[in-house]
TrEMBL record, chains A, B:
Residues 92-219 form the GST C-terminal domain. GO terms for cellular component: cytosol. PANTHER family: GLUTATHIONE S-TRANSFERASE U16, GLUTATHIONE S-TRANSFERASE, GST, SUPERFAMILY, GST DOMAIN CONTAINING. It catalyses: RX + glutathione = an S-substituted glutathione + a halide anion + H(+). Its EC number is 2.5.1.18. GO terms for biological process: glutathione metabolic process; toxin catabolic process. It comes from Eutrema halophilum (Salt cress). This is glutathione transferase. Belongs to the GST superfamily. Tau family. The keyword Cytoplasm applies. It is found in: Cytoplasm, Cytosol.
Length: 229, 229
């Protein structure tokens, strides 16, 4: 892509959705500058200017053009550096549709349920929310079997969109397990997802980018003390 | 694509999101069977089987493989019948990212605000919600100017993803205008969107597929009487 490529990623070290962009950039062997944002302090001018609608990370700035929303960024990276590294989206339209469908399920249904259950003060709402989270995991177990077709990843032999999407929450799940003893990914209920999670987190690209589970557990613990999680 | 194509769309006549699939199929000159679902009565076995996660329309069934979620369906149609009709997604990755970003804004921010404002019984929440809807329209006006680059559509010379996405709500806006005298698209505030709306609704493909404004107004009125809108 020539010498003049300027790639910058605005993120925070603990954000699962920023992790998606980092992994996609690594998979596609893209060099980039990383800018850590302080979302608890004041957001940078560059962030506010680059993502005026949501004012959120991640933002990818490629040759001065900003792109927001993590899955949108991952698809952009896949389409832009299409001859470098493995394809993140499958080649067949139906497989692509499935990857997008399940990624949307994770972002619009499953994770919002987990977040709502984590935030609520009502024990009833928490229990109901966690039930929804667990049902979602059973759905995702089925989805894994259908999409992976016996291969190690949702994307088959290679890490794909849905691996990056759902996989970005694995460290959070492990941190919650450490902090609360809560075991959401359970061998007896979601054996394929458990195996996939191990496979994903031990992948060379992934393990060099994911944040440390202990640090994330500490971070969540501090947020909870401040009443912000 | 050969003789063996079997394309079926499960929908309801009044659904804006079903309209997206219909328009994409028309643009790509795809013949299909349409199945009207009765969401107020009982959902068909085919719908429940084809979209077990959300149990919602639209569902596109192509050679027995179901695809759900309207924007996902539109992208699938664009990728599957890629040599037929104009491209629905732009060719450049950055333009594609913008089309996806703004479509997500419509579906995840703007329309949910409109729906919440329509449903709530609190006058305060309604007023606040409608403020968000109007602010969203100002954002969309800016987006139109940026994306269309002086051409008639968000997609440029041709109808694209964002036209199909946002355009699917135009009949609803017109029906609300008729029913409530509420004028959301206003010449003085969003002149480019007003011009675009006229252009879009008078497009040959679109005008043959959109439901009748009076029928939609009547339908919304009945829902409101039943307390369902």
């Amino acid at each position: 892509m020539g010498d003049k490529e300027e790639v910058k990623l605005l993120g925070t070290w603990y954000s699962p959705v920023v992790l998606r962009a980092k992994i996609a950039l690594r998979l596609k062997l893209v060099d980039y500058d990383y800018v850590e944002e302080d979302l608890f302090g004041s957001k940078s001018e560059l962030l506010l200017k680059s993502n005026p609608v949501h004012k959120k990370v991640p933002v990818l700035i490629h040759n001065n053009k900003p792109i927001s929303e993590s899955l949108n960024i991952v698809q952009y990276i896949d389409e832009t550096w299409n001859s470098s590294g493995p394809s993140i989206l499958p080649s067949h339209p139906h497989d692509r549709a499935l990857a997008r469908f399940w990624s949307a399920f994770v972002d619009n249904k499953w994770f919002p349920a987990l977040r709502a259950a984590a935030i609520t003060k009502s024990e009833d709402a928490k229990a109901k929310g966690m039930e929804e989270v667990e049902e979602g995991l059973l759905r995702l177990e089925e989805a894994f079997v259908a999409l992976s077709k016996g291969k190690p990843f949702f994307g088959g032999e290679d890490i794909g969109l849905m691996d990056i999407c759902f996989g970005s929450f694995l460290v959070l799940l492990k941190a919650r397990e450490k902090l609360k003893g809560e075991k959401l990914l359970d061998e007896s209920k979601t054996p394929s997802l458990c195996k996939w999670a191990d496979e994903y987190l031990s992948d060379d690209t992934v393990k060099n980018v994911v944040p440390n589970v202990d640090k994330i557990a500490e971070f969540i613990g501090e947020l909870e003390v401040k009443g912000q999680s």
